[in-house]
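Hi V.,

You were right to ask for the full record rather than a summary. Here it is.
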Amino acid sequence: MNNFFRRTLTGVWIVLFILGGFWLHPVSFFITGLVLMTGTQYEYLVMIKNMGIRAQVFPGIAVSIVIYVIATMAAAGIISLKWLLLGIPLFTAVIIIELYRKQDRPFDSLAHTVFSVLYTAVPFSLFPFAAFSHEGISSLLPHANILFSPGIILGFFFLLWANDTGAYLTGVLAGKHRLMERISPKKTWEGFFGGLMTAALVAWLLSGWIGVVDAKEWMFVALIVSVTGTYGDLAESMLKRSNGVKDSGTILPGHGGFLDRFDSAIISFPLVYLFISLLG
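Predicted structure:
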């Protein structure tokens, strides 16, 4: 019961942090995305140490922060997208730094440092492009001279949470057939379809409020979230099994770390954004 109570309180805090941060104001939107990105990337780079690989923690996170800041400013129309080309010298610097570190497995270090950027910075750097220069749901606090709507992000997380909740409850009540026992013994096909139906129902109910695309397209987004979100969770479970750890961190009591909570979003959101961008 204590673990359930702790998990519930943490879950409420996560929801309030996400909704409040992304919905409140463009500045809080920026900060919330930055926290999620750095938290997930740091946990990934720390977990890699259990495999005997010492990736470049500070340089890797620094590169991601620069990419995220540039992406936000470009999405807001403050600077040109060409500034993202600064990633070229930054990645070159990471290679040069590795030459001086004298690691036993330097290319393993380079591979995980670069992958950590692709795995976390790239998905979260798409968040600003889904909010700035968009019309729709307004931020809770007024702002001037910037076209901004967090509707796509809010809709995405509502569907993600609906899928997770539906999958969990259906899996507990009726789960019998394992989805991928080798990677995640608790996931079931019944849970997957329960999550999918719950997400589709929420998409249909909220589509008019969220806007951007119509109800049918939001229900297709629910399908993308359910499928790719499940794969995102399985991919992180595979990472943890490879490192012999139960959770990616301990910062979220009862839920593990940032990567445990947002692994689905990392894989799912780029495809959701691609779908909405092509149809919007």
